[in-house]
Description:
It is found in: Cytoplasm. InterPro entries: SDH, SDH_sf, SdhE_FAD_assembly_factor. One of its GO terms (biological process) is succinate metabolic process. The protein has 65 residues and is mostly helical. The chain has a single domain, classed as Flavinator of succinate dehydrogenase (DNA polymerase, domain 1), CATH 1.10.150.250. Helix content is 69%, strand content 0%. It has 4 helices and no strands.
Amino acid sequence: MRELDQLFERYLDREWRKSPTSERARFLELLATEDDKLWHWFMGHEVPPDAGLHALVERIRALPP
């Protein structure tokens, strides 16, 4: 989905380099997640089962366009 790609690109451009290793690992987990789950998480319809993933999703959602 193009919208998810844009969110991920924004994170990679702005946050990846300064992110701790643990957050980078969480981001890689997001990349391995099915698009339909990601869509529900990023739209706020569902919450990721893992608190760390949830925090990262919220962080990415909060990045300005």
